[in-house]
Batch of 2 targets.
Target 1
Amino acid sequence: MGRFAPTPSGPLHFGSLVAALGSALEARCQGGRWLVRVEDVDTPRAVPGMAEAMLATLERFGFEWDGEVLWQSRRAGIYATALERLKAGGHVFPCACSRRELAEVPDSALARDGSLRYPGTCRNGLPTGAEPRAWRVKAEGLIRFEDVIQGCQEEELARDVGDYVVFRADGVFAYQLAVVVDDAEQGVTHVVRGADLLGSTARQIHLQTLLGLPVPAYAHLPVATNAAGEKLSKQTLARAVDEGSPSHALAAALDFLGQHPPNGLNGASVREVWAWALENWDLGRVSRVLQGVAPELNYI
Ligand code: GLU
């Protein structure tokens, strides 16, 4: 069972279409179910109405998901139970550091993704009088996994990531925690998503291990970028794919995923594109690269 889990902060751009298509086709071709989850756990950043618009767009592009859509914004109680389990196991600690204090720590080396690595200030207890703000997981151990597309991956958590947040100072559960709780509850066995999340996977496997949850198989697809090499997103002002010619965009997404759709599919109906894709999908043809430039298409 695979799933598509968009963050509803922007429209369905080409990169999201690629991730949705790759995960849906892989699930279907494995005889599995395909689930859609709205990852709006970061409620302050979710744009009202955006998720509904995305779901409607997916339908216009011929996507059919199984079962009910799961909304993370309605599941805080379930994530709280997982946090309690991490507390009971001694895997997390309260942290009183503000972002400003962390930025001022002179010798805090950077994490692998260039973000600040937690210097360990509150790891062995809060400074006297300090109020807990967030909860962090003690990053320990070496995580190794075989990504179906990107091959063998390895992360030394303490060195590459550092103690990471599972409950934020603003009262929001971190994406990393929500995602592993939901994947387990929904019985997700295969996660097919963009390679921008490759660097989150070790933390997710770490949390699955601490919580005694099954570890799904991971396949990270190349991420679509603009001509400057930036990931398409709200921040890089990616435009929405044109719903006026869905089969055109679907064929371009198949091409991006290395499937070589025949030229004839360009003028075909959405149903015909899906029929071809279901018949011919082969994950093995997706290139083993982290990113690729999105094609010129009609955007709105
Ligand atoms: N919500 C994430 C995003 O839109 C995807 C999460 C996932 O597939 O695990 O980038």
Target 2
Amino acid sequence: MNKVVCIDGPAGSGKSTTAHAVSERLGILFVDSGALYRIMTRECLRAGVDTSDPAAVAAFCKGVRVDFVVKGGRVAYEVGGEEPGDTIRTPEINAHVSPVSAVPEVRAIVTGWLREMPRLGDIVVEGRDIGSVVYPDSPYRFYLDCDPDERARRRQREDATKGFVQTEEQVKASLLARDRIDSSRKTAPLKVPEGAIRIDTTHLSVDGVVDAIASRLGR
Ligand code: DC
């Protein structure tokens, strides 16, 4: 069985940056689980599905087809032969992704996809329920946490590079709203997985976080 390194945590905690760095340092494939929920959300919006109607979302998402392709050290996703890129990172998708990802049928589909991925090689997966639900038996489970103001600052800087200009207050409100939905949903809520190693990244550099994770893996 190939290794699965699980990195969970709230939005802006540094999961994505850390998981990329772990993937590079250890030479394993990077997997972004949130992107799969974002793809589901984009497809719902494009098809005019009401994202506040769980039954409609569940029925529609059963038909969404995604191909998985190993590309440049990561598992890339293609919909209709194309990678979604930043079309899944808009404020509109941010506003709709939590209700879509709260639908149990959608979670079951995405969890099934994620469980197939170790066939492609050793992986590092970032998300919200990777160590708690998708891979609860992995010996390499980490939960990153961070002060909300610092998370908002990080996310605002990141969004600005994509051309989305928002105040830090707007970003913080959006992050906290998503945290609330992600942590309180019935199916696979965001939480510290039992037995996972918790790392507070507020005052740590990316290298510091990666060192802590790599040392747990004996690397
Ligand atoms: O990490 P992200 O911001 O791209 O995630 C987008 C949304 O998807 C987030 O609001 C919660 C949801 N998500 C989830 O429920 N479970 C995961 N494993 C990953 C993301």
